């Protein structure tokens, strides 16, 4: 009898697997009683055909490790789910054991949000925090790249099999991060697979940061699932008039914690976010010019600074994000900014 064979049996999803698993080893002898004759026959077919052995052999060739709910090295926080996947496939090293933050948001994120995501993830990784995301275009990609730049581990939870990279342009990035999926090897992405993978992202993280999300973003599903699991939910404020930030701004209105700098996330995790910032050199180049302009004004809107410096709005927002993360500016209510120091 084999838990792996049961997990691979067509028609046996998390709920049915758990029904058998709750009975311990005795449950494998009572599959027909617990799940019905048809599923028992399907389970026997997987056993008789050596399906479990074939999956393990194929996984080994691909450098993938199948990890089951019945095994000691199954990711422990996935057990917090009401419907933990019976089996996950891991490609790359991932042992857990350190704080983890999910950084997620829009696939069509604006330049400032991409810049913020990358810098936030880089800083978190440099502070010993693992970064979890979904390898999607936009915020996810920026978060993975930032975590790699910060020298920390980063986990991509996929809505496809770990051997089917989506989107395909992230193939190179996928080769540098740890991949996880509950979907069988060879599975392509589907519309229904992404909401289900979001529950894994929420469970694997101690906190979830939504960088930028419109009203119907899948990132909001992740935030809702994280809240149900008792995880910290945080969001980065966007301009009130910006449709691309309406979802994340609504999270803030509903009580999510505000993220303006990496220290906000570290403080939420209880790992030194309140520590004083070390002295930093004054910014140079365009960032330095913007900082000086903001010091002269006291506080200002990004559009005002763009006019002062004859820069584009997107460039100013990117520079402000850079200066926020370095501790040189602070965001204020109403979309205004002030210089620090």
Primary descriptors:
Arc Repressor Mutant, subunit A; alpha/beta; 44% helix; 16 helices; nine-stranded mixed β-sheet; Rossmann fold; 341 residues; 3 domains; three-stranded antiparallel β-sheet; elongated
Rounded average pLDDT: 89
How widely separated are the two ends?
A: 67 Å
Q: Quick one: biggest sheet? A: 9 strands, mixed
CATH class of the largest domain: Alpha Beta
The strands making up the biggest β-sheet line up spatially as 1-2-6-5-4-3-7-8-9
Reading the helices and strands in chain order gives HHHHHHEEEHEHEHEHEHEHEHHEHHEE
Oligomer classification? single chain
Number of domains: 3
User: Can you give the helix content as a percent range?
Assistant: 40-55%
Secondary structure tally: strands: 12
Rg is: 23 Å
Which word captures the global form?
Answer: elongated
Unreliable runs, pLDDT <50, ≥5 residues? Answer: 273-278
Write the CATH architecture name of the largest domain: 3-Layer(aba) Sandwich
CATH topology name of the largest domain, in short, is Rossmann fold
Structural class: alpha/beta
Strand content is: 5-15%
- Total of DSSP H or I helical runs spanning 4+ residues: 16
GO biological process, one term: DNA-mediated transformation
Domain DprA winged helix: 275-335
Pfam families: DNA_processg_A, WHD_DprA
Family: Belongs to the DprA/Smf family.
């Amino acid at each position: 009898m084999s838990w792996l064979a049961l997990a691979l049996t067509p028609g046996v999803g998390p709920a049915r697997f758990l029904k058998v698993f709750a009975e311990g080893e005795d449950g494998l002898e009572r599959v027909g009683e617990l799940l019905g004759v048809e599923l028992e026959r399907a389970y026997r077919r997987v056993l008789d055909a050596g399906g479990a052995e074939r999956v393990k052999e194929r996984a080994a060739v691909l450098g993938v490790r199948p990890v089951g709910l019945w095994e000691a090295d199954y990711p422990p926080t996935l057990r917090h789910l009401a419907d933990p996947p019976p089996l996950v496939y891991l490609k790359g090293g991932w042992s857990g054991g350190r704080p983890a933050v999910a950084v997620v948001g829009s696939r069509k994120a604006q330049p400032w949000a991409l810049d913020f995501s990358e810098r936030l993830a880089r800083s978190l990784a440099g502070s010993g925090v693992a970064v979890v995301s979904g390898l999607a275009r936009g915020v996810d990609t920026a978060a993975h790249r930032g975590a790699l730049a910060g020298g920390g581990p980063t986990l991509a939870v996929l809505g496809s099999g770990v051997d089917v990279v989506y989107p395909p342009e992230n193939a190179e990035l996928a080769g540098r991060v740890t991949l996880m999926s509950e979907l069988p090897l060879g599975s392509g992405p589907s519309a229904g697979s992404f909401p289900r993978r979001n529950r894994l992202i929420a469970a694997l993280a101690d906190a979830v940061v939504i960088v930028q999300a419109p009203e119907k973003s899948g990132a909001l599903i992740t935030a809702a699932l994280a809240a149900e699991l008792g995880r910290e939910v945080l969001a980065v404020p966007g301009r009130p008039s910006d449709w691309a930030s309406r979802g994340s701004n609504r999270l803030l209105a509903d009580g999510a914690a505000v993220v303006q700098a990496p220290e906000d996330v570290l403080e939420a995790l209880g790992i030194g976010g309140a520590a004083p910032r070390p002295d930093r050199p004054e910014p140079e180049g365009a960032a330095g010019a913007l900082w000086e302009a903001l010091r002269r004004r006291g506080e200002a809107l990004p559009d005002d600074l763009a006019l002062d410096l004859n820069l584009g709005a997107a460039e100013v927002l990117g520079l402000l994000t850079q200066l926020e993360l370095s501790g040189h500016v602070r965001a204020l209510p109403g979309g205004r900014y002030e210089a620090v120091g």
